[in-house]
Amino acid sequence: MDDFLVALENEKPLLTEKLKDILRQEHDQVIFKFADWLTNFSKVDLKHKTGLVDPHANQSMLLQTQSITSTMRKRSLPTSFDARANWAACSEIIGRIHNQGVCGSCWAFGALSAVDSRLCIATEGIFSGPKAQISRGYATSCTYRWRDGCEGGWPSDVLRFMASTGSPTGGDQGCAPYFGHGAGKQHFSQSEVAPPCPTECMNPGFSRKLQDDRFMVGSDHFLNIQLLNNPQRTLAYQLAREAILSGGPIPALLYADNGFMAYSSGIYTHSCDIDPNHAVTAIGWGRDSWICLNSWGDTWGEGGSFRVGLCVLTHAVIPTMSLAGSSSGYHFPLAGSAETPAGNLNPASTYPDLQPFLEALSSKARTLEGCLCSDACGRKAGEPDRRDWCFVKDPVCQGSNWGFCRYVTSATTETITTTATTVANVTTTGAMTITSPSVFPSTPAWSLISGDCKTDELGCIMSPGYRGASMYESNQQCEFEVLNSSYQMEVLDFQVEADNWDYLLVDDARYSGKKTPHGKMPTKTIQWYSDYSVVSFGWKICPKSVPAPAPSQLSQSEGTKSLGVPLVHKGVCWAVLSLLALF
């Protein structure tokens, strides 16, 4: 009975006629548009359009934010600032509007809009154009390998992921296009599942391999600053403005309430005392407001952007170092381009205006080092056994405060010798030639023998009507013959009604909902069935060649690795007193 009552509460409309009248009265300087799709918009629907989940929920950012802002120097800043106007060569990148669809991936969009912008600024406009965007789909699928990225996340985790692993380009013309479906104002009753982390570029119009398109950026130097309930809020606002002025847009958080759904224009001041549920990108400010980008498409708000009162942003992610203009971690030129940043362009450096805060932070951290992860490592339910960090609560280390423990692998237990390759970043002027990747079969791996399913030029197979916001229909069937059983199934998208009501039959196994055939090697047939009700966006699966087995031993010239010795991890406890990750 309790579950039924909770479900009933979650399905209540958020915008009743009475609430609409209240919004109009209390915010007479703001324009709202109560579109038809908002009529039955519920709490569940709101969750699908936001997606902020703090994986570090036991932490508080407030204490360290106070220690930073209390050391700030008060200096004069512009009354208003818009990054789009300040960096004209990157105006299109900075102001570009994206659409997360019905996947709860705002955390990836909010972070990567900032990364795109800062990369354009650092490269002096070379990272620009329609192919200059880091893949939102790749980040959503790959940042949290142990769970579905459409269930929510945290922007800081994307920044760490971009520094440690990196991502290929995205968008319609990039290596890994976004998998999301639905416009920002449509299909709110649908929720998506992020596909498995892709291993190859699957855009038919793209001509390079994923590893040759990956961008690894030094985005793991940042502070998470809490603005909500901060006793020195004015100074915290100044720190956020300093960060935008120094290097470009920053990820930010807010609470998206009922009225935010219907926002059209003006400065909307709301929910200044509620924890966040949505991630956005702050690109500037006015006298009493922030200028931000949302990820609900360009038909929402002020062409996809919006303005809110200063108190609306609850948190901000402050980069402490600039991105480098050239790096061996960048794969320039972009596909189809010939421009590459000159060597040593704009080396990464600490922002001088933030230096006093960093010094105060590192001084405090040094006094709290010393506890071992092995002594006090508490993992959360659902997390894998091994990660490179964990939260600890150790009185020796930090009294009653939570600490941050980062694993360090002992250098004496694993030895790897490799031949280094030097990558030089130079300016090029000639045309670029790219060899098309050979991961796809020269002859079809699977052939359609009946039904309305589809195939494309790469040999990928799709459910009937698969495209954008289109859905498959009820009572559909189709069948593929397996022509070559040596190819794995690379699942690019899989939005299918769960519990085998609709399902894909691969050999003798059924797949539906969150269970996908990713990595399976069909040997018999592939069949699709949909029942008489409930439809979704469908699926797209491509054939992937299976890599040759690795040699049992590496020659000395290729590299050596000591085997059979277990890795020993040591831990160092760092004072974050929250999520203020300075590493």
List keywords for this structure.
single chain; Cathepsin B, Chain A; Jelly Rolls; 3 domains; five-stranded antiparallel beta sheet
How large is the count of helical segments?
13
The radius of gyration is 25 Å
Instruction: Write down the domain tally.
Output: 3
Distance between the termini: 48 Å
Characterise this structure.
This protein has three domains: 2-35 and 45-319, Cathepsin B, Chain A (Alpha-Beta Complex), CATH 3.90.70.10; 368-415, no CATH class; 446-544, Sandwich (Jelly Rolls). 19% of the residues lie in helices and 19% in strands. A hairpin with a 5-residue loop joins strand 15 and strand 16. The protein is built from 13 helices and 24 strands. The chain has helices spanning 2-10, 17-26, 43-49, 62-69, 83-86, 91-95, 106-122, 136-142, 155-164, 233-247, 258-261, 355-366, 395-398, and strands at residues 31-32, 81-82, 222-226, 250-254, 263-265, 267-268, 278-285, 289-293, 305-309, 313-319, 389-392, 403-409, 416-417, 446-451, 454-455, 461-462, 477-482, 487-495, 503-506, 509-511, 525-529, 538-545, 560-561, 569-574. The protein is an alpha+beta fold. The longest helix is centred in the N-terminal third of the chain and has 17 residues, at 106-122. The model is unreliable at 4-8, 57-64, 184-189, 360-438 and 552-583 (pLDDT under 50). Helix 4 packs across helix 12 and helix 7 (106-122) packs across helix 9 (155-164). The strands form six sheets. Strands 2, 3, 4, 6, 7, 8, 9 and 10 form an eight-stranded mixed β-sheet that branches. Strands 14-17-21-19-20 form a five-stranded antiparallel β-sheet, with no helix packed on it.
